[in-house]
Amino acid sequence: MNGQQNHELNANEKHVVLIAAFTATGNLPQLKNALNAGLNGGLTINQIREELVQLYAYCGFPRSLNGITTFMSLLEKRKSMGIQDAEGQAPTAVTGDNESKYEAGRKTLETLTGKPQNGPLTGANAFAPGIDAFLKEHLFADIFGRGVLTYQERELATITVLASLPGLEAQLQAHLGMGMNVGLTEGQLEQVFALFLQRYTYHRLLYTITRNPQVPAGSCLWAFALSYFGSDQPMHFPHKIEKFSHHPGYPPNIHASSLLK
Question: Is residue 203 a contact partner of residue 30, using CB atoms and an 8 Å limit?
Fold first, then answer.
């Protein structure tokens, strides 16, 4: 990405968003589709690999590793089909001692937040100085300093993960601000959430229904309604659910009427 001022995510940025969403939620079948689409759309191996590496800091090593192994399997399959995917720019090795990395991470954080980061530690960073060191020396120096992805692309991935997982509203708000500080526009961020509505929320609903029969259908409906239908009144749901049930990917064994009980 460059420092564009338009309000549209480009094709590669949309791929970054969907890869992050399905990695964070552990939906590996849809992640495989998103990875395949990303490669077909022009993302390089190293761009996707860097994104999957970064995601461990926001959704954990298990999700990141599952994403990486899914990507490895896909690359082997594509290679067997004679597809030669571009490796792309190699990451930059971040060198230096902890003190220099801390300073590099501090400066990166200043760029992201648009605020000085040289005052006394506060909040969680003051209570647990170790986390402050890990954030600055590792996340914002070791990872953000590797290149390959721009700060905008890294923030798109981060925002997507934080929006995909429950209970992270404070961190999401912070990173929405960081994203805009490094050039993302309100229109582009709105598109991120539109992609959720079109792809992520839909698949999350289906995944919940088909993989966890113990979850009451009403709970699925209301979780879906809150994230997809927004402020629509419940009386509007039957029509929308009925229309939704005609989507080609809708499970044939799930009747729309059962979601409204």
Answer: yes
